[in-house]
Amino acid sequence: MKFSLFVGLLVPFVAAKVSYNGWKAYKIDTVHSHEAVTNSLKDFHHVSLGCGHSRGALEVAISPESLDAFRALDLNTTLLNDDLGVEIAEEGMFEAYNPTTKAQGLVAALPNKSYFKSYHNLEQHFQFLSDLHASLPNNSEIFSAGKSVQNRELRGIHLWGNGAQGKNPAIIWHGNVHAREWITAMGYKNNDALIRDTLDSYDFYIMPIVNPDGFVYTTKTDRLWRKNRQKYPRHSCIGTDINRNWPYKWDVPGGASEYPCDETYRGVEAGDTPENQALVNHTMTISKNTGIRSYVDWHSYSQLILLPYGYSCSAKANNLRTQMDVASGVADAIRKVHGLEFEYGPTCETIYQTSGESSDWVFDVAKAEFSWGIELRPRRLTGDGFVIPANQIVQSGEEIWAGMRYLFARL
């Protein structure tokens, strides 16, 4: 069986009530003035986008009422998108979830191909996990790592093969993403040797949406929302960047923001978000019980494979050469599918400094052998979308699946 429907863990955002009609997206050259540019933008109604493809650049969306003043700054900019509102409107709406594919060895049905041609809401994602479990009742379980600020579950699915449940080293995937990894189960039941061997040797813990409050908010209110929905008594701005809140190198200067209104606000204290506390506790339990072989935190966009470390450009992972070698093979496997190039390397050297982020914590504290952040297509913000359009879900899944197969073979 060809697993072309591995959907690649895509960020599941769709049209929202906040209007972005007339908003323009720019890439700003910040090679010599990153801090100055960042400070100047605080005076404008804007939203930071993505991570930027390389050091020395910042990608932002500027509101129509701020355009003239922004242009008056006379920054070195490149227009990336002339109207984000048009793009958001073209992304499509949620479509019904219908589990209609029945494969040999499965107790219940799984989604057919049409499921992967549109995005789905939180309830549909949770229903999907439940149906996947129902199809493999002896090789899976649904778990909850904890609750969000607004009391939503951080729900995931645990998959295993012929080995005893929870006895093998772990492969963990996190993301506020579409994690429709049903092909892993399909491969196991259809005698794909690599998938069978991987599931017999490792336990998968897949949490597709670790920021459920933020996810729901993007689908109902603000399409470009990034953080969680945590409120702070002394500030009017809402939310913490969960991926700057991990309790490791949290307060390293330059890797996150101390300003509550910024997109990369790190929180009042390390690990003070309920979402992060749940993820830390769940991950550490797995680490202590079986160890973690591989961890991936999925994001979009930029086409990057990011390795430890983010907090420092001089610190080197003790197995960096091995991680670089495997990442090179993963990037090559991805390229062979649809020709897309994925850059790879330590986070700080490849993009910029990031403190209090997941892959550093999982590598140094939870002791995963491979601990990565992967930024999916597109490479940069263009008219094709800074979020993957629904018509690219399958293509992105195909290329990322090829990369993951290479990774599994090297574990």
UniProtKB/TrEMBL annotation:
Know the name of this protein? Answer: Peptidase M14 domain-containing protein
Signal peptide interval: 1-16
Q: Which UniProt keywords apply?
A: Carboxypeptidase, Hydrolase, Metal-binding, Metalloprotease, Protease, Signal, Zinc
Query: What domain of life does the native source organism fall in?
Result: Eukaryota
What PROSITE patterns has UniProt attached to this entry?
CARBOXYPEPT_ZN_2, PEPTIDASE_M14
Keyword Metal-binding carried by entry: yes
Q: Which GO terms describe its molecular function?
A: metallocarboxypeptidase activity; zinc ion binding
Q: Which residues form the Peptidase M14 domain?
A: 118-411
Q: Which InterPro entries match?
A: CARBOXYPEPT_ZN_2, Peptidase_M14
Obligatory cofactor(s): Zn(2+)
**Protein's GO biological process:** proteolysis
Question: Which residues participate directly in catalysis?
Answer: E375
Q: What family is it from?
A: Belongs to the peptidase M14 family.
